[in-house]
What we know:
Structural class: alpha/beta
Shape: flat
Helix content: 40-55%
Number of strands: 18
Radius of gyration: 35 Å
Amino acid sequence: MDTIFFLVLRRMRAPLLILIVVYAVAMAGMALIPAQDADGRPTSMSLFHAFYFVSYMSTTIGFGELPNAFTDAQRLWVSLTVFSTVAVWIYAIGNLIALLQDTTLQRAIAERRFRMRVRALSRPFYLVCGYGQTGSALVRGLTDRHLQAVVIDVDPDRINLLRLDNQREFVPALCADARSPAALESAGLSHPLCRGVVALTNVNEANLKIAIAAKLLRPKIKVICRADSHEIEANMASFGTDHIYDPFDAFALYIATAIQAPCQTLLVDWLSGFGGEALTEPRYPPTKGLWVICGYGRFGKAMYQHLKGQGFELSVIEASPHKTGIPPEGVVHGRGTEAVTLEQAEIRRAVGLVAGTDHDADNLSIIMTALDLNQDLFVIARENHIQNQELFDRVGAHAIMNPSTIIANRIRIRLVTPLLAEFSTLARFQDEEWASQLVSRIIALIDERMPYVWEVMVDEEGAFALHDDEMRHLVVTLDTLLRDPRDRDQRLCAIPLLLIRDGERFLLPELGERLEPGDHLLFCGREEAHRRMDWVLQNIHALRYVVTGESPREGPIWRWIAAWQRLR
């Protein structure tokens, strides 16, 4: 507010001073010039009447001469005053219009409005720094789960795009440099309901500075960052950044896992997807043979490292090896878009292709040319811009790596359903048979749609009915939660995936396990199962029914009807 007041005073100081001086001179002249009353006797105009007359005269309302008819001297003075006040008003209004169009004032007003909206937030929120492809995907994922987000981005076009996006929740947004501690404070870093800071800009150094500022200003807050450099990643980890995501390493590890354990990969894909969408088909990358990697940048090196660890034979194509480096096996110089380059890399006997350059057009061309030479290739494509999604879907790639989508999904899971990240880690230590059986159980519950995943916290907020004094004596098990509150003989279409109790983790807990205060549970199944389970957890009558099978009439009218039916 002080900034806005200062800007207005600075720009309107001269017009206001001139307006005051002109008004004062006009009123003084009207008061000093001799006047006549109705009988022709000499008199003078009071300052009050002079102020009143000049006020309406300068606005050209024209109520007439008062309190008496003017003399010629007064009318001459009024004529001069009319022109002077009109000119001053035009000058003042012109300056006011220019002030309202001033970008500095507009920015100050927008920042004040933004700060007021952030202070008024009444639900927990996450501060998202950067609204590019990754940030927009994350914000949409959060708002779809009815979680609040606040956005900072230095690009005004992205902020305008956010305001046009059809989000399920209102998202306050500020056009500012998130590296500035003042901007982070304005965006609610110190707000008691701020649950975490997510740095998703396209610049590693900017993400690093955001993470440092957040940890210094609020040490206990959760900080999640994107990093495309191992050096920056190590720097972030050194001062306690909670989670750091490298999209290239994450996807390369994902492919390596898909090669070793395709069923586990399919399981995690289904649980990590958006509930209700069509099920994805399992991927079966080749387990041996030659892979051709086109592009030896950050993504190419990550794929090279993980495929090399799997024992594959590798051939690398790179247009600028003097910049990216040369792998031990050597490199084929070129972009990979030409058939001759692919032939040199022995594409005809290859089992897999990685089109991983920084340019989508080159990646599309590489895939099309390679498939003409070898139709049996397992193709992995790097998609740099989400706008080209349809082209990559049509080109015939088996797996598409979009850095923004990968990071947004990983962070969304971490923020929305953190137990799913725990489950995914524990599931990697299980064998394929375990994963295959769980996939079969999920398929039996869902109707060719992605399962919904939700968490249950057994506390007063997440399970109000369990903490009611009348319900404390009831024995509530996992099997109880899986009973339909409309018909307890029917089971809900849900599977308990993980139970955390006193720091211990139990995969696929037994249905006879009794619930205890503080238990944290992860379920998957149909969306309607989530709603009905929540009904049991929050409604004491529904809980009593699924536990005992009894549904007593609570209200006086229902009790009277029940008594009347017994008498009949």
